[in-house]
């Protein structure tokens, strides 16, 4: 739009704007309505903003009655050359190009015709049809060579010229036989230059389908083709023309992205007449790509200021290629008079962050979220819990956070990393419990492979048994009221209600289905509504260590193999899209942290000290507010200490090692669940539950013990211990008073052990957590104040030998 405003259509189909508010670059969302689908491209013509959806429909941005921007459908109304309006079926648009003067837009339709939006107010459309015996697959140039003359490329790669003032209207530019090995052009926008050979010469640069640069040149009223080739072993995929501030520059510059993700500059010397020639040879300059990121293939860049070009990256972010010292993420528009580009000036890369819709960390500039001073231009200082906590975090300097796994040196060969072996009961320990309906229903998978549901119905808690022919090992997901479990063979099964009956569905039997060993640790964050989208999917880990995506939205079940990081296999999922939209965090069998981007299908490894090895256990995401991207991932280290991976907008990513509550104990089992963005539950090796919470700005430990202590022979000693227990631990007064009345406290058979088992607990509601005890019973920990938790009850289970009364029924 201008030097201070760049509009981007992202890989996820969102639209956002980067604009300079006088102090910093900020990001504002401009998405199409959800019902209209994803955006494919954006056009700014004559101060009007148009968006094209992936479905082929156009939308215009307008202001509503309260001056808020909204998108309204902009339907092409076709006219004949006689200006007589005709009725037409709905026109679907494929792509478009804004004319050189910015007054018109030329579209190619999905039916292969050329369509012109000649005027906005009043709206005037012109249908130019298509070349005889051919179609319009792309607009190569719109009015740069000559006003109102359009150059198009057909789907088979021929170049056509459309001139409404000539006869015939369409002319085909043909190659001489044998002029090029493959003269088929790629349907892409080209780059037009004036005065390359002489003052009135015209050149149109295009790419062939083989990635070769060719030129269609008009000089002294004669057209001819020239082949410029390509850098050695490179396949060119897009063209970007970079304009120079100084008209006396001795060469033109064209920038190209390649199929390998690099950016090349092609410097072409100017020749002003016959007497004066620049002796500089045509040169290819390799600008490569930013560290640990590559340029997107087939998408050109955008020069928004002289010496500054923005390219989309294949990982969803942007990168600015700029002359050293005059660009970058923290530099606004500069006075063009200060830019005098010379061949000795060095270009450098600066990576620009993208919004969460792309799986990245740029915060939107809205009233509800992100910087509050978007328009005023006052620099933001993050004011959140995470900032205060970062005072004790270890800095890592300018270390890259996101690394491409294939270029990272691993701790050894991949087959050596895969020697890690999981415990036989790994699935049972981490996926024994699963919430179905908060506060009313959860599932328990027993050691014997039975599936039980603990259900509150008609004012009574009962156990409901769900029989399946094979033994079940774990419950690995819950979506839209359906439970996802895996059996001993690794098959993924759905337990769902079909009409008045309950049914089992074998998902592994679907096309491309696989055997799985684990899934996402959590189905949501307690107290936060889930966002439902048409792309909803669950992720699982396959038996051979690959990440599998299973689409579940609208019951359009579909498997996708997301593979694994190149230098390791996937051990378990740390978090699926709770911390970052479209991002799945995993731990590899090598004990290192990776992420998979659902939008780009790319893997990244996160920077991690070589001395920090993570346990192969699920983790927990903690995000204090959905309005901010600040938050943490919590995991355990291999030696049983708590590890936090924290992000905020001021410092980016940082590792923090919290360790253990005290010497002599280690943390066992998966960390979590978390509450309120500042409380995390953990299980220790001595059978106690610990709460890690924030008191003002400091992290603290609190021992919540276990539901009750063993019965004492001496009543006085018992009361003394009980009172101390109440003071030091999280205990309900009524519960602790009645613990000695329990018929099981006096159980001398040794079947009752109230300490906490290293089974991953579940958040039963916004203020309740369910733990499994070592004797097979369950204990419920409830919150009575902000950070005050008490043991409220124990729950007898069908398989515990330390029996309590329960009701059971068979589900049908």
TrEMBL record:
Protein name: Uncharacterized protein
UniProt-listed SUPFAM superfamilies: Fucose-specific lectin
Lineage, highest ranks first: Eukaryota, Viridiplantae, Streptophyta, Embryophyta, Tracheophyta
Species annotation: Cannabis sativa
